[in-house]
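cron nightly-structures :: item 1 of 1
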Amino acid sequence: MPWIEKRVIMDAATIDRTLNRMVHEIIEKNPDLNQLAIIGIRTRGIYLAERLQKKLAETAKTEIPLGTLDITMYRDDLSRLGYHPVVGETNLPFDIDEKRILLVDDVLYTGRTIRAALDALMDYGRPASIQLAVLLDRGHRELPIAADYIGRTIPTAKQEQVQVKLAETDKSDQVVIAEWKE
């Protein structure tokens, strides 16, 4: 049996409003946007990073560099997955040394994805700082990692799944809570 949607918690309009609010928070905490670069974590973090970059350009009238990061080989669960991982492309068309990096992902859960992303980033240089922006924080942290910018905090049960659906990959924007039905 598949994952069954229990409820929609964000629709396209809510996601857009949330990203707009996050942009204003980012501008407020980064007075010199010329030192900022955005890096999206593959897959949906990339699309959210692109949206944030576009909204920042419209709001602050400045172009912020954008990169993508694949963390596959930095995951701590590769040996447990039991399959041959598909490694995607990392594209950092700028030097991250001494940059303020805005790392973007869709859901913050255990913190392990972000730990892997931090490890991967350190292989590319030494940023001045790293900030984390996530669309959703669902709790259940296993590592001491917290986001600087949170679109929405959603209490969930561990057996539930948060599914972020974006037009770029899923034809529409929405966030749903799903559960496994047997």
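cron nightly-structures :: done
The first helix runs from residue 12 to 29.
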